[in-house]
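Worked problem 6 (solution included).
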Amino acid sequence: MTMVREDNLAAPKVVLPPPFTLHRTEGRDVLAETVALAPSEGAGTLVLHQSPGLLAFAVVLEPEQELVEAQLAFLLGMTAVGDALAAHCPPDRSVRLNWPDEVLFDGARIGGGRFAIAPGTADDAVPDWMVFAAELIADRDHIAEPGAYPDSTSLLEEGFDPAEDIVSTFASYMMLYFDRWAHEGFAAVSNRFLMRVDPPLLRGVRRIEGDRMLEITPSGGGRRMAPLREALAVQAWRDETGPRL
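Solution. The predicted structure is:
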């Protein structure tokens, strides 16, 4: 693992609210890198990787709730990613989410989210730590014919603001949404997630019920999505190197 603290670098600064502490890494798998740091570095550790083709970042969380509820922090992380991207993309473009972990930009895959929980944590136990990670396609310059991959796009191609701005805004949204969860309840922030779920639900309602998303139609029918941890195990949006092109 090659890890350097932000204050030791001349790279463009990432402005983070307290209590975040930034570490840059050359390792592409920021989830694994952050999991290794989580027991010693603790909450607020934010690990950032930037390389050709990939922008990835992860943050250590130390919840106070039992795992059955604490795992919903993943949805807050996805909401923060979606809102950060929406704040730094060209106007009138759509940032959407596929339940529960894929990020789409104007209908094309641009990345997704990952999650790790301290091993051995029972549903009725408070995790020692959890890690939320996001992986985004920074560019596709290494592809001879990007048009051959119409299902994906990149931050560079779509004219996003600098990566440092995206990461800073993500951290600010994470702080905001955890504060709302603590003071107003989970529904106050889960609605932000549900607003971004694709495709838009033109009639009926969506809600988070336990660890699932539930869709209810006007006729009284409905659909229950796979449980969160079961759905996260699929990771259809990525392969062993990162987001699929």
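Discussion: Residues 3-243 form a domain with the BirA Bifunctional Protein; domain 2 fold (CATH 3.30.930.10).
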